[in-house]
Design goal:
It is built from no helices and 46 strands. The protein is mostly beta strands. The chain is flat and about 175 Å long.
């Protein structure tokens, strides 16, 4: 470089001169003087700015008049390799990368190229680049190169593995069912996204339970039971899904608020207070204290009435009420009461039974009389008649049939006389109290009409054989208090209603067939008799047979044609033609299709040895008699 060409010389007739050797002030290289020029040689691997200082003097050669000049050279090269790309964001089908710009080596960087492990390339103008169009749930790595006017850098080191993914859509709003200090939670899995499969769920509950833990993570199914909750507190839950994407799904909506609850505690032992009688019934008032409800208000109480220790009835009492007046049938047995409380969680345990108490009023009629039909019997049930203070040993009972004579009530209350089956009866009952030599009879209570009946009688069954059929017969039994119909089952099949009369049916379509009938009686109340049965077998089939005969001349062949007849043979069989000419042996074999029976017909076989014997064997079926030829 001629460094003096542009300098001002105060002595135009005398040239300027370079003094000494030039010095490299920055950068790497060498410099030397060559006449009025300075030759600068950058170092082999140097790029960037190279500064060389040189000194100029004029004709005076006065050191104080010497001045320094500087050469600034820009040495250009292709950029250095960028730093390792950093994965800054992963989205559905997309990865965002960033890296540090490398040294441009003297020439501004004009752009970058990102290359994926699948071979795709993306041009990017800056040090942040979005790579899209990737396949979700597939791992990728990326390198980046920088380009300037000189060329393209070496590739950077590969990025960390990045897996594009789409976060799941929000799961369905949970459905929640309460339990005792717990909630059972179910939800629908996310749908309609193209990311990796769901790997787990996080549940969140509000408000946080006593444990302080408001979330449960790592759930792999779509249901869970959250325990350790406080009964009586309304909770809401929501759910979030997670797959291999960096971010989880959005939260589902909160469920409806659900309150855990357990069944109420057992009430304390009830107390009773006697009230005025109501008509022929005694009346007691039962009272109890409300128990702990365990998280849900008591909706109702169940008051159980026990007589002699056995429950006789129960009634529902509203939840806000803790006492109930109850009327009672008179009885020689003591009454007691237990109470249970019910809320949405169910019914709690029974209280202890109240202290026993008697119910009594003035004498009256028996109650709830019913007459139940039996087999030539009528069974009576009724509530005891009020005894007006009399004990049970002082009260007896009588009955009458169709307003007839009174009779002593049997101890088992089963009437066995005058109530034969196939009749209709009304039964009157009255209480009889004998005190102080006086007999008192109470009002007569009459039952509804009752018709005794027994189990249906067994019908008749028989079977008769035919050649290829069987006739099955049935007959009706006598009535035993109830109308009836007959049912038959043929060959073990389903039962068929055939009415109330006898009859027959013919079944079968072949030889040696066994058919059976079962017959039973079914009455109007569903009782079924014992089953009568019978069976028979149709005649056996006739045996297969075959015969041969000597047919006409087989000329020009020697001998005569062999004729064949057969019966009861169907199918295609091998037929062997035998003779004893020169020893027993088969002289012809052919295959014949048999069609049941046939009169003699001419076969394709002829035979010419008079005096010998001929016969046929239908293999596997039969052999004909021998005939003399």
């Amino acid at each position: 470089m001629d460094v003096l060409a542009n300098d001002q010389n105060p002595f135009p007739d005398k040239p300027l001169e370079l003094v000494g050797q030039p010095v490299v002030e920055s950068g790497s290289g060498t410099a030397a003087v060559s006449g009025t020029s300075v030759q600068v040689t950058p170092a082999k691997d140097f790029t960037g700015t190279l500064v060389v200082r040189y000194r100029v003097q004029d004709a005076t050669k006065d050191p104080d008049r010497q001045v320094d000049g500087r050469i600034r050279l820009t040495v250009q090269g292709r950029p250095a390799a960028p730093s390792t790309p950093q994965v800054t964001e992963v989205r559905s089908g997309t990865v965002v990368l960033a890296w540090t710009a490398p040294a441009n080596n003297g020439s501004p960087i004009t752009g970058y190229t990102v290359k994926g492990s699948d071979g795709r390339t993306v041009s990017c103008p800056a040090t942040t680049c979005t790579v899209s169009g990737l396949t979700n749930n597939v791992s990728y790595t990326f390198t980046v190169t920088a380009t300037n006017d000189v060329g393209t850098s070496d590739p950077s080191p590969a990025s960390a593995s990045a897996r594009p993914d789409a976060k799941p859509t929000a799961p369905g709003t949970p459905s929640v069912t309460f339990g005792d200090k717990q909630l059972k939670i179910t939800w629908a899995a996310p749908t309609g996204y193209d990311g990796s499969p769901v790997t787990g769920y996080t549940l969140e509950i509000s408000p946080p339970p006593a444990s302080g833990v408001a979330q449960k993570s790592g759930l792999t199914g779509t249901s869970d039971t959250w325990t350790g909750l406080d009964n009586g507190v309304p909770y809401q839950v929501r759910v979030q899904a997670r797959n291999q994407a960096p971010d989880p799904s959005d939260w589902s909506g909160y469920s409806a608020a659900v309150v855990p609850a357990g069944v109420p505690d057992a009430p304390a032992q009830p107390t009773t207070t006697r009230l005025d009688p109501v008509g022929t019934q005694a009346q007691l008032q039962v009272a109890w204290a409300a128990p702990k409800d365990n998280g849900d208000a008591i909706a109702s109480y169940t008051l159980h009435v026990l007589r002699g220790g056995a429950e006789v009835r129960s009634l529902q009492v509203a939840g806000g009420t803790t006492q109930q007046a109850i009327t009672l049938d008179t009885s020689e047995s003591d009454y007691s009461f237990t109470v249970s409380a019910t809320n949405k969680a169910g019914t709690g345990a029974l209280s202890a039974a109240s202290a026993p108490r008697r119910a009594f009023v003035a004498p009256g009629a028996v109650t709830s009389l019913t007459a139940s039909p039996g087999n030539n019997t009528v069974t009576l049930t009724y509530g005891a008649a009020p005894g007006n203070g009399a004990s049970t040993t002082e009260v007896a009972y009588q009955y009458q049939v169709n307003a007839g004579a009174w009779a002593v009530m049997p101890s088992d209350e089963v009437i066995r006389s005058g109530v034969a089956n196939n009749g209709t009866y009304t039964i009157g009952v009255r209480a009889v109290t004998s005190l102080d030599g006086v007999t008192y009879t109470g009002p007569v209570v009459t039952s509804a009409p009752v018709a005794p009946y027994g189990p249906p009688n067994t019908p008749g069954a028989s079977a008769t054989s035919g050649d290829t059929t069987v006739t099955l017969n049935w007959s009706a039994p006598a009535r035993n208090g109830q109308d009836f119909h007959l049912e038959i089952s043929v060959d073990g099949g389903g039962w068929q209603n055939v009415g109330a009369s006898g009859g027959s049916t013919t079944v079968g379509n072949g030889y040696s067939q066994t058919h059976s009938i079962a017959v039973r009686t079914v009455d109007a109340v569903g009782q079924t008799s014992a089953t009568a049965s019978a069976s028979a077998t149709s005649a056996p089939p006739p045996a297969p047979s075959a015969s041969v005969s000597k047919g006409g001349s087989a000329s020009p062949n020697p001998g005569n044609w062999v004729n064949l007849s057969y019966a009861n043979i169907n199918g295609t069989y091998t037929v062997k033609f035998w003779s004893d000419q020169g020893g027993v042996g088969v002289f012809w074999t052919e295959t014949v299709k048999f069609t049941g029976s046939s009169a003699p017909y001419q076969t394709n076989v002829f035979y010419g040895y008079p005096g010998s014997h001929v016969w046929v064997e239908i293999v596997g079926v039969t052999t004909s008699p021998q005939i003399a030829w």
